[in-house]
Amino acid sequence: MGVEKAFDDFQTVVNADKDRVDLARQRRDTFKKAFKDEPDVEEVFGSGSLARSTQLDPVHDVDLVVVYRADDHPDWGQPGESANDALAYTRGRVKYLLGVTDGTVDQLIRHTLLRDRAVKCFIDPPDFQDAFTVDAMPVLRQADGTLLIPSRRSQSWSTADPEYLIAVVADRQREWQHFRAMVRVLKRWRLSVPTKVKSLVMEVLALQCMPRSGTRPEALRAFFTAAAIQINWGIYDPAGHCGPIQPDLDISVLREELEKARDAATRACALHADGDSDEAQRAWQDVLGPDFPAPKKKVSPAITGPALITGRPIRDAPQG
């Protein structure tokens, strides 16, 4: 097995299960079907990593954006209770349209919770191992195309543009066929970092630091090299609206791990260039974890001395 084949095989470990992704898209489409005929809804679209095709295994949730007509909800978008009102209203419509007992479009949702910015909709039984939710977020479209999104916690609305990130990631994928796949690899890598790192941090770092061409090993080496420097300036919303993506990020810890990965990736690429594919794979395993396929080191047989002759007493004797 060569290094490129090892990356192919590792991708099957990193990628979300196809059946689960198909189910997530099916549930998203059911929500879109339910809300598209609501008289006060302008449009419904998927957001988050599923919409960008950068989701990591397993699927945890499906993000859905419900764009309401501002004229039908003139109080929304104002500071105060309107953020909670928008979420509570959306929760009511979810139950009416998709409630498990008497939904008018489909019988899907078992339970709902109001979160800070979205209605979390539970579909699977509580003890189901691969359960995931659909998170429906009510928003208003502004004149410049951006969205106003609610926050129950702060009792306010803020500007965001999730469609910008969807478009940028799609553009990078068209430029380099491995971009989305390498984003998933980096999201998995972050799980080995000894501090919390949000997956979106790695996705934005990839947009900033991943090359637009080349082999996957060389691109990852270049990424870790650039990201170890870029992280010092923080990671911000690429659309320029929401500020730091993770304000509590421990930059020093992440930088140290990026530097370690840079050094190991540089060694891996050098070994591959020298024709030592086995050692290169083992070096990539040091970077990406034990699930990255690499041949085990051969253990040399133990070297033993001559057999000890027994059967007669051994006496000390002068040496020399």
Task: Spell out the key features of this protein.
alpha+beta, 2 domains, 10 helices, single chain, 320 residues, seven-stranded mixed beta sheet, Beta Polymerase, domain 2, disordered C terminus
* Through-space gap between termini: 56 Å
The helix/strand series, from N terminus to C terminus, equals HHEHEHEEEEEHHHHHH
Main β-sheet description: 7 strands, mixed
Q: Assign a percent range to the helix content.
A: 40-55%
Unreliable sequence segments? 307-320
Q: How many domains would you count in the coordinates?
A: 2
Q: In CATH terms, what is the architecture of the largest domain? A: 2-Layer Sandwich
Structural class: alpha+beta
Helix run count:
10
Q: Got a strand count?
A: 7
> How much beta, percentage-wise?
5-15%
Mean pLDDT over the full residue set: 92
SSE arrangement:
Elements: H1 3-14, H2 18-36, E1 41-47, H3 48-52, E2 61-68, H4 82-98, E3 111-114, E4 119-122, E5 133-141, E6 147-151, E7 156-160, H5 162-175, H6 179-189, H7 199-209, H8 216-230, H9 251-273, H10 277-288
Parallel strand pairs: 2-5
Antiparallel strand pairs: 1-2, 3-4, 4-5, 5-6, 6-7
Helix pairs in contact: 6-7, 7-8, 8-9, 9-10
Structural commentary:
The chain has helices spanning 3-14, 18-36, 48-52, 82-98, 162-175, 179-189, 199-209, 216-230, 251-273, 277-288, and strands spanning 41-47, 61-68, 111-114, 119-122, 133-141, 147-151, 156-160. It is α+β, with helices and mostly antiparallel strands and 320 residues long. Strands 1, 2, 3, 4, 5, 6 and 7 form a seven-stranded mixed β-sheet that branches. The longest helix has 23 residues, at 251-273. The radius of gyration is 27 Å and the shape is elongated. The N and C termini lie far apart (56 Å). Mean pLDDT is 92; it is low at 307-320.
